[in-house]
Structures are given as C-alpha cells and as structure tokens.
Write a structure and sequence with these properties.
7-stranded mixed sheet; acyltransferase; L-amino peptidase D-ALA esterase/amidase; 26% strand; cytoplasm; Ubiquitin-like (UB roll); amino-acid biosynthesis; 32% helix; transferase; 11 helices; EC 2.3.1.1
Length: 409
C-alpha cells in the first residue's frame, strides 16, 4: 500500500474504502430483504468517533435519518453505522420510527455500546414496513467473522447500482499517516441538495467536530450537491463522516497548518464518490461534466452548472450524440442567474459551438464522434467574473425508463 511521504502529498488509492483508516472494520450479509444479494451492512470503529452528517432536503425524511441525526446531535460522536438496502423505512409512521430505534438498540447490544453511538441507515422502496424478524436475525449474525469483509459492506448497500463505489487517500500530518476512506451507493433518484445516495466517509484523523462538520458541508456543496441523474430528491439520504483519531496527529482545526491539506483529501474522496454515482446513473452510458467559468459568484456558477446537467433535453441529446447546443443555451437561460447572452461561449470538449450570441460553425461529424465517448465535457464561459463550478451527471437513456417503470415489481 502506498503511503504519503511528504507533508503536502496526497496519495490516491482507488481500490481502498472505509476500512483504510486505522481502527475501522466493515462487513455485511444477506438477511432476506433481497432475494439473493447482500442487504445488511455495517461499519464499526474501535473507539467512538467524532461524527458529522449532511442530509436530504426532502421534507419527508425517513425514520432512520431522523434517528441518526438525533444520535449524532447527542454528543457529536458515533461508533458504528448499520445499513439495510431494499427497504427505505420511509413514510412508515410511528411503527417505522420504532423499527429504526429497535435496529439501533439491537446492533448496539451486539457491539456492547450505548444506543446513541449507532447510526441507522436504510435505502430502497418507500412506504413498506421492514420485516423486522429478518433484520433482527441478521443483526444477531452480522458480527460473525465470516461476514467481516469490506466488499460485503460495499455490496450490501446497493440497490439498482451496477458498480460499487469506493476510494481512499492518505497524507502526512504532524509526522503521522492520516487516511480517509469512502464508500457510497446511488444510481437513481439523484439530484443536487442530497438525493438518493448514501455516502460513508471514515478517517483516523484527530479532528474537532465543529471544523469537521463545517468542512463536510462546504465540500458537499461542491461535490455531492453538484450531481444529478434524474432530478428527483429522495427521502433517506445522507453523507456521514466518522473520525476516530487513531492516527495520533495533533487535533485538526481550521488553525492547524495542514487544515487545507486534510480538506483537500476529504474533497478528493467526496468528488470521486459523487462522480462514480453520476456515472452509475440508472441506464446511463456516459458521464457528463459541466464546467462553468467566469461567473460573478460561486452560487451563480453552481446554479448554471446544475441547470444544464439537470436538463432532460441536454441529457437525451448527449445520449443520442446530437450536438444540440440550443438545449444547453436554453438551460443557461432559465437557470435564474442574470447573464449577458452576448458574452457567453459554449464548447463541447474542445469544439466551440456558440459564442457572442451566435452559433459557431463546427464539424457535425467531429462533434458526434466526441459525444460518442464515455466521458463528455460541456464548457461554459460566462465572462462575467472569476468564479467557477463543476457539475456532474449522466445521459438519459431508454433503459432508465425500463428500470424505473418496474422498480417495485
């Protein structure tokens, strides 16, 4: 395993995950929520970890989400996360809350820790009660040694995902190797401002809660909140960070000389997971990246990027390899951002298609060939300032409709 050797170097480890940092284990098993695939997973830290989270903006917040927020708020620490897929435990009323608390209590009992040190997470179909006998039987067995495998965890959290999503980084802080690991699920019902995604980030850094929480919120606005698949925002989803301090560095705060280094590592993990979610959109064949430069503010750049990446007409044009720049211009125009129409330049990769309020002559066949690539970039230059932002999404295909037309059946 590569390790950071200098104080400013960040080593990216594509095949690592939430067990890269010291003191974390993870695993999973099949408890019967799905027909065959793994459906109950966990992450456990050796010691209580400083915790922070960001949560869906949907007003119908699912029971496990409420339980987790309450747990973290108690003393800003958790020691474990338990996750089930196939059932969201959302819109399940008082019984859904009781079930979420029961899962928390039973897993805490298996670990021998207080209930509030366990975060509870669910994802899947909305409006159905959990089959608690199956879940509780799974909890009784989940810590068995044969289930302890991070790959089991990565599989257990998936719903319609086609691929697992993981990443790790390492850096040197105060002469100590500090690691950050991440895993996520998400494929459909993805839209900016937290959508149907679960993100789990672990680190062995010693870090103050207030600064960790602030960094997570800032980085989420630049990463997880800048992706879309289909424009829907779910009831369940969140990103949780656990920092157990076992690396032994001096406590990280905003005043620490390596604060920006740690934030860079956290952003690398978050951005990588966000892009993997966007690429794995239901039925997707392409990852689309929208880069907006020259905005008068960060918020303006983000709004324009989100507007373009959320446009179904843009997404279908990319799928059909149609260089229909008019759809991009339209999305910029209804973004809500004041713009100067005659100042804007739009390019598909290195191919300019619109500038100074007029179409730019381009080779249609060259543009089509570019759009046939797996990774497509749309560049927008607003020429109104110095701020920029990047958004990610995927194309919209026939398969997306097929997958979601029969999600419950």
């Amino acid at each position: 395993m590569a390790q950071a050797t200098t104080s400013k170097e960040i080593v990216i480890l594509e095949e690592e995950s939430v067990t890269l940092p010291q003191g974390f284990t993870a695993g999973g098993l099949h408890c019967g929520l799905k027909r065959k695939r793994l459906d109950l997973g966990y992450i456990v830290s050796e010691v209580p970890a400083t915790a922070a989270g960001v949560y869906t903006t949907n007003l119908f917040q699912a029971a496990p989400l409420l339980v987790t927020q309450e747990s973290i708020a108690k003393e800003n620490k958790i020691q474990a996360v338990i996750v089930n897929s196939a059932n969201a435990n959302a819109c399940t009323g008082e019984q859904g809350m009781k079930d979420a608390y029961e899962i928390q209590h039973n897993f805490a009992g298996e670990l021998g820790v207080e209930d509030h040190l366990v975060a509870v997470t669910s994802t899947g179909v909305i409006g159905e009660l959990l089959p608690m006998e199956k879940v509780n039987n799974g909890i009784k067995q989940i810590l068995n040694k044969e289930n302890e495998d991070v790959n089991n965890f990565l599989q257990a959290i998936l719903t319609t995902d086609l691929a697992v999503k993981q990443i790790g980084v390492q850096m040197n802080i105060d002469g100590k190797t500090v690691s950050i690991g991440g895993a996520a699920k998400g494929s459909g019902m993805i839209h900016p401002n937290m959508a149907t995604m679960l993100g789990f980030v672990t680190t062995d850094a010693n870090i103050a809660h207030e600064d960790l929480s602030a960094a997570l919120k800032e980085i989420t606005n630049e990463t997880f909140n800048m992706i879309t698949v289909d424009g829907d925002t779910s009831t369940n989803d969140m990103v949780v960070v656990m920092a157990n301090g076992l690396a032994g560095n001096n406590q990280l705060t905003k005043d620490h000389p390596d604060w920006e280094l740690f934030k860079s590592g956290l952003k690398i993990v978050s951005e990588a997971l966000a892009k993997k979610i966007a690429r794995d959109g239901e039925g997707a064949t392409k990852l689309i990246e929208v880069k907006v430069d020259g905005a008068f503010s960060k918020d303006a750049a983000r709004a324009v990027g989100k507007s373009i990446i959320s446009s179904n007409l843009v997404k279908t044009a990319i799928y059909g390899t149609d260089a229909n720049w008019g759809r991009i211009i339209t999305a910029i125009g209804y973004s809500g951002v004041p713009i100067e129409p005659y100042a804007i330049k739009v390019s598909l990769g290195s191919i300019p298609v619109f500038e100074n309020g007029l179409p730019t002559p381009f080779n249609e066949e060259e543009a089509k060939q570019y759009l046939e690539q797996e990774n497509v970039q749309i560049l927008v230059e607003l020429n109104q300032g110095d701020d920029c932002a990047t958004a990610w999404g995927c194309d919209l295909t026939y398969d997306y409709v097929k997958i979601n037309a029969s999600y419950r059946t």
